[in-house]
């Protein structure tokens, strides 16, 4: 859906020095986390509740579920994507 992971893009373009500085700012070696990171329970709860609600409305037929919701915690809003599937996308076409 043309949503880019800014952290992944940054990681690809960083120099070794920038990566080392990022590790120091983070406070621990990221490799020690095994690809994970600290969880923010309240944010996880919001996202999980949105997913459960969309499942509930789908299974009960209350309404058509939204295929993509984006939670913008810094603004306190949930955006509903109205974009259609990309014609050339392998996953969207399935």
Question: What does the secondary structure layout of this molecule look like, with pairings?
Answer:
Elements: H1 6-13, H2 16-26, H3 41-60, E1 69-72, E2 77-80
Antiparallel strand pairs: 1-2
* Helical content class: 40-55%
Radius of gyration: 18 Å
Count every beta strand, where a strand is a DSSP E run of 2 or more residues: 2
Distance between the termini: 14 Å
Sheet/helix structural class:
mainly alpha
Structure overview:
This protein is mostly helical and 94 residues long. It folds into 2 domains: 1-38, no CATH class; 39-94, no CATH class. 41% of the residues lie in helices and 9% in strands. It contains 3 helices and 2 strands. It has helices at residues 6-13, 16-26, 41-60, and strands at 69-72, 77-80. Strands 1-2 form a two-stranded antiparallel ribbon. The longest helix has 20 residues, at 41-60. The two termini are 14 Å apart. The model has no long low-confidence stretch (mean pLDDT 83).
Considering the chains and any ligands shown, give keywords for the structure.
94 residues, mainly alpha, 2 domains, two-stranded antiparallel sheet, 2 strands, 41% helix, extended
Can you describe this structure in just a few lines?
The chain is mostly helical and 94 residues long. The chain is built from three helices and two strands, in the order αααββ.
């Amino acid at each position: 859906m043309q949503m880019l992971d800014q952290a992944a893009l940054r990681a690809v373009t960083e120099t070794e020095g920038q990566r080392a500085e990022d590790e120091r700012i983070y406070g621990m070696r990221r490799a020690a986390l095994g690809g994970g990171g600290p969880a923010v329970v309240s944010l996880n709860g919001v996202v999980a509740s949105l997913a459960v609600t969309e499942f509930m409305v789908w299974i009960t037929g209350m309404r058509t579920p939204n295929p993509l919701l984006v939670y913008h915690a810094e603004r306190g809003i949930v955006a509903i994507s109205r974009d259609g599937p990309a014609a050339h996308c392998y996953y969207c076409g399935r």
